[in-house]
Amino acid sequence: MPNPIKFNTEADSNSLRIGNLNIGANNVPKGPTSTTGFFSGINPSVNGYSIYQNKSGTQGPSILTPSSDAQLITMTNQIAGTSYTTIGQCFTYYAGQNDKKVMHNPITPMVTDGLALDVNAGTLLSYPRSGTSILDLSGETNNGTLTNGIAFSNVGAMEFDGVDDILFAGVGTDYEFKHHSWEVWFKTDSVGFNGLGGLVGLDYGRYISLTTGGAISYQLYSNMSGPNVRLMSLGSTGVNLLDNKWHQVIASRGDSVGEVWVDGVLNNSTSNGGNPTWNGRNVWSGMASRFGDNPNNVGYKFDGTISNIKIYNKQLSSAEVQQNYYQAPIITDGLTFAVDAGNLVSFERNATTAYSLKGSVNGTLVNGVDFETGFGGAWSFDGVDDRITLNTNITLGNGNVNWSVCAWVKTTDTVNGLGAGPVMSNDNGGPVFSVMGVNAGKIVYWTYSGGWNQHLGVTTVTDGNWHLLTWVNYDNTTMDMYVDGVFDKNVTNSASGNNNPIDAIGNSWNSIFNGDIACIQMYDRKALTSEEVQQNYQANINRFN
Fold first, then answer.
1. How many CB atoms lie within 10 A of CB 215?
2. What class has domain 115-323?
3. pTM (predicted TM-score)
4. How far apart are CA 448 and CA 398, in angstroms?
5. In this structure, which topology does domain 335-544 adopt according to CATH?
6. 430/448 Cα distance (integer angstroms)
7. pLDDT tens, position by position, 157-169
8. What angle is formed at CA 141 by the lines to CA 78 and CA 324, rounded to 5 degrees?
9. How would you classify the pairing of strands 21-24 and 5-7?
10. Residue 215 to residue 209: CA distance in whole angstroms
């Protein structure tokens, strides 16, 4: 099952909500039954689905896991007493139900406290891939309407044409918007327009606006002088966001500070927060939202793609911003490199570049590395010639500095030998001095210091299930290796040479990984504690377990 679920007439903390179904979204432990907590659930097969169907009385929900489109159609017809012939009909059916839903990918762990709107085209819970209705997952029933033919992208996003497309979200419960945060995931290369809405000389490529009483009260927009984002009276972020890459932007206000975050980084803040006003209009209560549009001038629309929009009735903290950006509450202190096949800012399906969520080291997919849609997204390596090559070396030192690497992998390959089963190594900027990978069914660390040494773990990881492999190197040339957050093996001598350059994912100088890799995090000059290793494991347990 992608996420724990509970049928409850009351909202449950740390969960999303549709009708009376609460969907776990923040990895908070729950009890085993529908009356005391969330079900642990069952994972769907790759390219399969999970159907949640509530039973009458106190029996709780049934969880069905059709493994194909054909099985989904058959099971849906049995549940609904219909004769559907397409999966699109099935998706539309579940979108209209409050006591049964279908999912295909896990809900990534996200901040749910204060959530007032969450529309996400990338999940069937919110958008059934067709039609004009998009459901609000916040539990506040601020459902949206897609107007004038907004298209659905195969990466799970809404495509706005820049002409007349608008997403309207309904008026919901009153919120005190003195404290609030807006989050939007978008991609565009469109330039804006000049001098609108009373902000003379500034250029609009607007993608989100909040209105009260039909007037602009608050908005994000781009600036012609170097396309970037502004938040009302906050200054420019100075970051180019019209580069046809995916970005996450969060704009927020608290009692005294307003902030703009771009891709997990605080780009601008001001002390002129307080009661936000613009042209004398307070943004206090009564949420009526429209996206892709400037309501003050109907001639200017967003031209680009939007995946997810969230609105909170509070100012998000730094830790909460990071959790939403990395789509999991992983350790971010010391993080210098992070790629994730399931995060749009890092990778868009069918692309050939994997962008790091932190830093500037990116990777190029070579020889047709496949994208696996299950488990939130992963890269599939064929064991023959697939690889991801980094654009520059990451140097880890000669074993005498702290560093850590975490990688979620899935394989059944029990190959053994120097350079075999590589998760990370070097194939271009050698000579090569280390390999992190899987040998003989175990986690392994090969290192060269006057000769090659194989450091083999204990726990079997080649069982076809997902495992988090973690290598923690210390500044005294020793290393601890972990499997699924649990200590596995100590390496008494991790010394290497040539500053240990790394520039390859899924390959080494003489071998290719045979299996799936979903995400990798690297920490420079930081040795994760055992508690931090466990946190990184728990952060993604719903996605992979």
1. 13
2. mainly beta
3. 0.91
4. 10
5. Jelly Rolls (2.60.120)
6. 12
7. 999 887 787 787 7
8. 95
9. antiparallel
10. 10
